[in-house]
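Standup notes
- HV: blocked on the assembly model, inputs below
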Amino acid sequence: VTDRDAAMTLVVFSHGDTRIGLDARNVISIEDAWTRESPHDGADRDVGALLGLPPDDEVEVALTIASRHGVLRLRARRPAMVEIPAAAVTALPLLSRRGGADNLCGIVFGDEPILVVDPDRATASTT
Amino acid sequence: MEGSLHVLPVRVEDVWIALEAAGVEEILGATRWVPLPGAIPAVPGVVPWRGQAIALVDIALLVGIAPPLAEGEVRARVLVAQSDGMRFAIPVDEVREVHHVPPDAVGPARATKVRLARAEIDLDGRLMPVVDLVAAIALITGKEAEVA
């Protein structure tokens, strides 16, 4: 049972015009100073790849996320930490669970909506 | 032979179609929708409604009267409808009041040429297809590849 009044922290990345969020509890590390010339070991995909988005040239950090299915290394733009009520993450409707939405667990509506990635699905589908 | 119908006429671009009023829960104003990466063209994103996210269904694309909604394109009205236990949003340009159509003004879809028409009505001298929302949702959930 989730306490919908509880606060949760999202680590939010921009990828093109899309904002992608991950529950901070699943983010093990964020490493600075990533460049394409000196990439961090194992981080060979952008966070946007979890949603089928094309590569982003502005990635600058590497992150490690963990779930029940393993560990995943990704590249991303510098993230922001956003604290929201857990209830603000709205589940996606069945009709929308297709294509790139397979790895999504919800959405946070607002001026700049955040697509929230399910770390279990993301790691299961890519590891 | 169809019985009488209560229909809600809606317009997308310059084409009027009718939806069965019983399937429509609410009519909203222009509402921004959020595109989902990788979504099929017929269900390109989601709309916030009463604390939920509901799927945006591009009915005009499904019935073949308009090109796919472009990202960021907002229409003046959004219907919240329900069919087969699923709730979804339908963007349109204009909505008229609900009409009761007597049986003698309801016939099989012949003259109007839109997909998913289950009947045709004569509304004040204007022929209008009645679009079958159940069939539209079945097309999305069961045969999405054909829609895309």
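- HV (later): unblocked. Chain A has a mean pLDDT of 84. The beta strands of chain A are 7-15, 18-23, 27-31, 61-67, 70-76, 80-85, 104-108, 114-117.
- Next: hand off to the docking folks.
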